[in-house]
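tokens incoming
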């Protein structure tokens, strides 16, 4: 069977179970595709072709013996910040250029136990700090829809490889929008679960109170399958929530008649881009045709989201990144004169500019005398934003809004202006501040052919509502089926 690389996971699972294809055939097809397009897209940092083929053979054995699980034999790419025992996990940074973790992240272990095929690791902004995948030590990833544009970030490689059919599904992480933004820019479905729904054990920490792992897929059916695999309590992560997650696939293809979506004025007032506006109007019409009611809402503290985020995230980063000092692992500078000199030179050479900017911002904000003025104030804003959402969910099942202010921008367009780069996340950051689940769904193309996503947000641990709404939308539209002409 040809072109297995552009099928969805659920289609491939059907074919595997009917014994029409093997995991080895799928994996070969995807590896061929990588061979053909990766030089243009540059979505992958480390390709583990040999170990992928080995996993595919093992998956076929599991299938033959009747020992397979739902996703056995399906290829996946993980973001380069998820520890994979014995495989390079560089976090897009020179400081971890040759780091091979001695253990695997919980999500990676789950993927392996499932018999999935890990193809390798996807490119990302250094330490997940960025919105364009341009701060990676390995160079930028390109948007498969238009190679001179960014795929978004920081999980740009994970989104681009699903869009370019270099993987069937992938995992990313989202601290302020890093799954949803690249999903929107690359025309794929990207899901950020509730904080605590997916274990962070083995995820290289950026801002621990905001980081969350989630999947990218061609459609929400694949997202539901991936969430079934990765959600769940993990005693190795003290912030992992001891909740029972439902089987998310039972929320696919269900009616949404009578459900209510909230449209926050603070989000809609900010839409300046005509293409984004058109996508939102059209998506709203689809939901209304499906019997969904819309209510207008107000989230009064939303405007402070970015300012508060750029205190909290750098503060946590400055602490988390203190461990990279050249002593036990990672890059160590040569020609050093004593221990302090080694710390300084290793960090100066090992970190890129954006990471250094965050470390300095965070260290300054936490320094003695400034704590109340910056961190404490930001923490209070965070509480107010969380309360705004809580109130909003009293009158709706989920919130409907843009994912990003505009379609993908050109590579280099915002690299010299960090403020402009930070503003890209205006619609996604508040969701992380409140720890809520959010999904970005393909909503159509701009006039000049770039994908545009829209976002749905629900209350804590109500992922199932997002699956239900997303599935209804995708059953009645074809935007998620559009592919770039690579
Ligand atoms: N762009 C945001 C930042 O640079 C969010 C990144 C993320 O979600 N990892 O912090």
């Amino acid at each position: 069977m040809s072109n297995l690389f552009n099928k969805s996971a659920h289609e491939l699972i059907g074919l595997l179970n009917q014994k029409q294809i093997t995991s080895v055939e799928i994996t070969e097809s995807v590896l061929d595709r990588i061979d053909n397009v990766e030089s243009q897209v540059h979505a992958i940092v480390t390709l583990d072709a040999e170990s992928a083929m080995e996993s595919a053979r093992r998956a076929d054995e599991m299938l033959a013996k009747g020992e397979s699980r739902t996703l056995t034999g399906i290829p996946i790419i993980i973001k380069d910040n998820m520890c994979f025992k014995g495989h390079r996990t560089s976090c897009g940074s020179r400081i971890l250029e040759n780091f091979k973790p001695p253990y695997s992240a919980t999500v990676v272990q789950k993927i392996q136990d499932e018999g999935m095929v890990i193809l390798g690791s996807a490119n990302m902004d250094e330490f997940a700090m960025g919105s364009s995948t341009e701060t990676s030590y390995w160079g930028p990833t390109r948007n498969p829809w238009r190679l001179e544009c960014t795929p978004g970030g920081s999980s740009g490689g994970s989104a681009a490889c699903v869009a370019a059919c270099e993987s069937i599904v992938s995992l990313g992480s989202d601290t302020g929008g890093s799954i949803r933004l690249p999903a929107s820019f690359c025309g794929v479905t990207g899901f950020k679960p509730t904080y605590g729904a997916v274990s962070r054990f083995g995820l290289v920490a950026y801002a621990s109170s905001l980081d969350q792992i989630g999947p990218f897929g061609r459609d929400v059916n694949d997202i539901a399958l991936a969430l079934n695999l990765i959600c769940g309590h993990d005693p190795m992560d003290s912030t992992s929530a001891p909740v029972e997650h439902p089987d998310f696939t039972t929320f696919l293809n269900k009616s949404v008649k009578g459900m209510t979506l909230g449209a926050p004025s603070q989000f809609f007032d900010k839409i300046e881009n005509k293409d984004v506006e058109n996508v939102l109007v059209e998506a709203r019409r689809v939901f209304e045709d499906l019997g969904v009611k819309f209510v207008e809402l107000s989230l009064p503290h939303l405007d402070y989201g970015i300012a508060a985020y750029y205190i909290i995230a750098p503060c946590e980063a400055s602490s988390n990144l203190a461990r990279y000092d050249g002593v036990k692992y990672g890059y160590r500078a040569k020609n050093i004169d004593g221990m302090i000199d080694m710390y300084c030179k290793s960090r100066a050479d090992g970190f890129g500019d954006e990471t250094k900017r965050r470390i300095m911002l965070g260290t300054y904000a936490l320094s003695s005398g400034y704590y109340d003025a910056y961190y404490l104030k930001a923490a209070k804003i965070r509480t107010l934003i969380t309360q705004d959402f809580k109130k909003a969910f009293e009158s709706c099942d989920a919130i409907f809004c843009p994912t990003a202010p505009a379609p993908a921008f050109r590579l280099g367009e915002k690299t010299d202006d960090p403020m402009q780069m930070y503003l890209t996340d205006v619609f996604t950051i508040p969701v992380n501040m409140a720890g809520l689940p959010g999904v970005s769904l393909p909503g159509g193309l701009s006039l000049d052919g770039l994908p545009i996503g829209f976002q749905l947000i629900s209350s804590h641990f109500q992922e199932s509502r997002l699956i239900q709404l997303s599935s209804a939308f995708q059953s009645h539209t074809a935007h998620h089926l559009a592919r770039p002409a690579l």
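note: The longest strand covers residues 438-445.
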